Amino acid sequence: MALAGELSGRRSRRLERHMEGCAGCRREWEAYSALDRVLGSLPLEAALPPRLEQVTLRNARLAAAEATKSRRRWLDVAVPALAATAVVVVAARLSLQDTEPVPAPAPAAPARPVTAPSATARVPGRVAERAPAPAPSAAPASPQRRRVVREVPSEPPPELAARPDLFINLPLLRNLDKVQHYEAIQTIAVDGAQSSG
Amino acid sequence: MRLVIAMMLLMATAAPSGAQRFVRDWNQLSPEEQQRAWDNYRRYQQMPQQRRDTIENRFQRFQSMPPQEQQRLRQNYDMYRNQNPAQRQQFNEQYRRWRSGRH
B40 vs A167: CB contact, 8 Å cut-off? Predict the structure, then answer.
């Protein structure tokens, strides 16, 4: 405050009187006074190079553009990837529906009327719906499923013609172990509980 | 001697192998069965050879079973097929444990 001249006259005089008899405070005063002079000689505003503002602004614009570009680059990758994934999932789903072995009909259910091959069933690529069961009480609990009906060749391959029962029973054969030991498997406890089934 | 021959003939005619008894010709199948066989044949063709060999062995085993056993397996398969997803999941878990305990 004394260096800035903010002390009152009375206090300023007291300070001067003290420093006349105190060498330490006098040295301290002289040091602060020298520092104050040096600082006072510095300009209040530094002179900046004229291109600095332009360069800084340009760099800021470039940085902003790069950030936007990287976001767009991520979107450019992510959006097609998501779209491709969706297409693959739908295609896989359709493929699974299409390639699931056609199970043999349940013998307990009343036999569906075997009609002559209709035009609908023989058109390749047509989607046909399974005929509903005639009686609700005898109908199996499985939901109605749609499958793509393919044209059966008039002349089946020799392997198919020789043993059609193998292919009719293919789903059963794939699960032969399970159906052969069906009752025993159902007695196996799961999570510590004995199965009732 | 005649009795023995008669009994042998009777046994030979009364107990033919299952494979001979249930072989059907393609033309004996209904159109729906032909369609199902054709669909499954195409899937069979896409299986690896090892899997096809397994199916082949199982088919031979199945064909050699008595008709009552075949009927039992068909009924079990229908029950298995008609399970809802939760029942199927539980059954598969039971099967996994049963199999691990067997081997």
Answer: yes
B22 found inside a domain: no
Look up the domain containing B33 and give its range. 27-64
**ipTM computed for the complex:** 0.76
The CA dihedral of A89, A91, A92, A93, to the nearest 10 degrees, is: 80
Residue B77 inside a domain? The answer is: yes
Cβ distance A134 to A112 under 8 Å?
Answer: yes
C-alpha angle B28-B30-B33 in degrees, rounded to nearest 5: 105
CB pair distance less than 8 Å for A181 and B26: no
Q: What is the pTM of this model?
A: 0.44
Shortest Cα distance from A71 to chain B (angstroms)?
43
Q: Is residue B85 part of a domain?
A: yes
Same domain, B99 and B72: yes
Residue from A154, A185, A194 to probe the interface with B (highest B Cβ count within 10 Å): A185
A169 vs B: CB within 8 A: yes
Contact yes or no for A141 and B46 at CB 8 A: no
Specify the length of chain B in residues: 103
* Total of domains in chain B: 2
- Per-residue pLDDT for chain A (197 aa), expressed as one digit of tens each? 776 767 777 887 888 889 889 999 989 888 888 888 787 777 666 666 767 878 888 888 888 888 887 777 777 878 888 888 888 888 777 766 655 566 655 544 443 433 334 433 343 333 333 333 333 333 444 444 555 556 788 888 998 988 899 999 999 999 999 999 999 999 988 765 544 44
Shared domain for B50 and B79, answered yes or no, is no
Please classify residue A51 by burial: count the beta carbons closer than 10 Å to its beta carbon, then call 0-12 exposed, 13-18 middle and 19+ buried. Answer: exposed
Smallest CA–CA distance, residue A91 to chain B, in Å, is 17
